[in-house]
Design goal:
Elements lengths: L5 E5 L6 E6 L3 H18 L4 H17 L1 H12 L3 H21 L5 E4 L6 E9 L2 E5 L5 H14 L3 E5 L5 H5 L1 H4 L8 E3 L4 H10 L5 E5 L2 H13 L3 E5 L4 E5 L5 H13 L9 E7 H16 L19 H16 L3 E4 L16 E4 L16 E7 L2 H9 L3 E2 L1 E5 L3 H10 L4 E4 L11 E2 L1 E2 L5 E2 L1 H6 L2 E9 L26
Helix pairs in contact: 1-8, 2-4, 3-4, 4-5, 10-11
Bound molecules: NADP nicotinamide-adenine-dinucleotide phosphate and magnesium ion.
Length: about 475
């Protein structure tokens, strides 16, 4: 049971309590920030090659512990083991990427602005960075912030989600290669530990991934303190399938993009628009493929789809599906808790048709294994529907028509456009969203810049009076030279 000081951690596949964590409050946060501020003063001046060595060491340790970390993550988060093995690989790769990038992204020089002048552009750290992450990709999303923040010379305090703190806590050992205080991990509720971090005046930057609602709340607190905030919020990604596509491939692509991690991915495909002439055939293929997917424990190697993270999240999915059905939608697959699983927060992968944009399932983030499909007549219509969302995270397109590809990527309001390869990230490719998704970027050079502030040093080697100084419009009165006494 949850108390003021302790939070239980559940296995979402069995509903059993597997551990408990402390709910750390303002005093612990204050102690951590003070230690972090001290560590920052040294860490920021650590030579780039030493920073690189330590960041590579983190990657090496993640690879070494992948199996144990992935197992723990499946136990607390529910995601299939093989997906968590992948998550460890991507996380390790992110530390390697920023280990190298920081070596030559420390600023630039503009020589000879005028013959006696130069400009130095310095990229400096902010100080103490608070990193607040959700439970769906706890290690990856933490890495996307911590690796660039450290590479930029900041000290970092991490607050994992209360549902998935155990795998993150294993990083106390992984991060012990850094000097004391450079990276710390605090556990607890968002409203307690998270908010104390956000409000602490010693924290200079808050890097947050999570819901729109909490993101807005954090942004308001940061605005009061004029504190830098980095936001990666929700999404309602569209997936457009054109009639020239290979339908067997496109059906599998849509299923994966909709059901990966039980639909609990910020870039899950949550609205599918398919060209009318192929709609019937496409829907037939995706329905039979969806029915063949195996729902169960993430530790079973045959499981495709694990449990959801908790009952409130499952209830929200149920509510979206039921409201759609009341308004005329049809369930062609799933739409219920799997009857063979009495325990755990499971929900069958679900295909809906007869959906429209006045239904919640086509507007709000569902964050569950639901694939609502709507046929389109004209490609322009599919683009208009794609942009009909408050969010602008990712979008997907299946076509071999290069004209359509160009039209699509130029017109869509989204931070990532995937063409014929859904949901593939790349360390060097910036990730983030337009509109209510928050506007920040992770990965790539942009992901490092988020944790750097820019200082311009304008340097003249000579001291001389400039013609644009005072006095204006008058001859300068020169001090009369002393004349010899006559
Ligand atoms: P959430 O409720 O917003 O929680 C995210 C994190 O914020 C958790 O660590 C949470 O702590 C903490 N938190 C909650 N209230 C807080 C407060 N008042 N002050 C400081 N921290 C606070 O999000 P969620 O529902 O768990 O996660 C799913 C959401 O994340 C979805 O909307 C999804 O789209 C979004 N997401 C976005 C991206 C992206 O890159 N754009 C990636 C993944 C997920 P506790 O949970 O421990 O209380
Ligand atoms: Mg939460």
């Amino acid at each position: 049971m949850k108390t003021a000081n302790k939070i239980p951690v559940l296995n979402p596949a069995t509903e059993e309590v597997i551990s408990e964590i402390p709910n750390q409050g303002p005093q612990e946060v204050d102690r951590a920030v003070t230690l972090s501020q001290r560590a920052f003063e040294k860490w920021r001046w650590t030579p780039a090659h030493e920073k690189a060595e330590l960041l590579h060491e983190v990657s090496r340790r993640i690879k070494e512990k992948t199996q144990d970390l992935a197992k723990l993550l499946t136990e607390e988060g529910g995601k299939p083991f093989r997906e968590n093995v992948d998550e460890m690989g991507w996380s390790a790769s992110c530390f390697d990427y920023y280990a190298e990038l920081q070596r030559n992204k420390r600023g630039r020089v503009i020589p000879s602005v005028e013959p006696s002048q130069l400009s130095l552009i310095l990229k400096e750290p902010y100080g103490v960075v608070a990193t607040i992450v959700p439970w769906n990709y706890p290690i990856l999303l933490m890495s996307w912030k911590v690796a660039p923040a450290l590479a930029a010379g900041n000290a970092v305090i991490i607050k994992p989600a209360e549902q998935t703190p155990l795998s993150t806590l294993q990083f106390r050992e992984i991060f012990d290669c850094f000097p004391s205080g450079v990276v710390q991990i605090l556990t607890g509720e968002g409203e307690t530990t998270g908010e104390a971090l956000v409000r602490h005046p010693g924290v200079s930057l808050v890097a947050f991934t999570g819901s729109l609602e909490v993101g807005k709340h954090i942004a308001k607190i940061c605005a009061e303190q004029v504190k830098k905030v980095h936001l990666e919020l929700g999404g309602k990604d569209a997936f457009v399938v054109c009639e020239d596509s290979d339908l067997d491939v496109a059906a599998k692509a849509v299923a994966w993009a909709s059901f990966l991690n039980t639909g609990q991915v910020c870039t899950s495909a949550e609205r599918i628009y398919v060209a009318e002439p192929i709609a019937k055939e496409f829907i037939g293929k995706i329905v039979s493929f969806t029915k063949s997917l195996k729902v169960g424990s993430g530790m079973d190697p045959e499981t495709d789809i694990g449990p959801m993270i908790g009952e409130p999240y499952r209830k929200k999915v149920e509510a979206h599906v039921q409201e759609a059905v009341k308004r005329g939608a049809k369930i062609l697959a799933g739409g219920r808790k799997p009857p063979h699983l009495s325990k755990g927060f499971f929900y069958e992968p679900t295909v809906l048709t007869g959906v429209d944009h006045d239904m919640t399932v086509m507007k709000d983030e569902t964050f569950g294994p639901v694939c609502p499909i709507k046929p389109f007549k004209k490609f322009e219509e599919a683009i208009r529907w794609t942009n009909d969302s408050i969010y602008g995270l990712g979008v997907n397109l299946y076509t071999r028509d290069t004209g359509k590809v160009k039209q699509f990527y130029e017109k869509v309001e989204a931070g990532t456009v995937w063409i014929n390869d859904p949901l593939t990230d790349n360390d060097a490719g910036p990730f983030g969203g337009y509109k209510a998704t928050g506007g920040s970027r992770e990965l790539g050079e942009e992901g490092l810049e988020e944790f750097q502030q820019t200082k311009h040093v304008h340097w003249d080697f000579e001291q001389k009076v400039k013609p644009w100084w005072y006095p204006y419009g008058r001859k300068e009165t020169t001090v009369p030279k002393k004349t010899k006494k006559s």
